[in-house]
Amino acid sequence: MPQSSALDPDAIAALKAVSPDDGGAFLNELIGIFLADTPQRLAEIRDCLGKGDATTLTRAAHSIKGAAGNFGARRLAAAAYQIEQQGKTVNLAAIPPLLPALDAEFAAVKAEMEALRVS
Fold it and tell me: Which of 28, 33, 6, 32 has its CA nearest to residue 15?
């Protein structure tokens, strides 16, 4: 993977090493879970923003941050962290300008994950 990769090659190698003899099934499963869950968390952030629910919004951002970290998706984790911090301080007005970066980073991560999947 190139240096500007949305995913850290070392993190991906570590995930592959957990189950090296499964032909990539474990990594595929993790990617599938991430790609199914993250859009739900992104929608939850927007929904909670509209409702003024800082607590649930913070949890959703924290979930994205943690899951992204498992794959070495540092930029996505950092974008989620910024939103998480604003949620913790109940500074919801600061969040909408942060959403485009979160969406863009997720799109980059998603594209790289889909390319990693083994059929």
Answer: 28
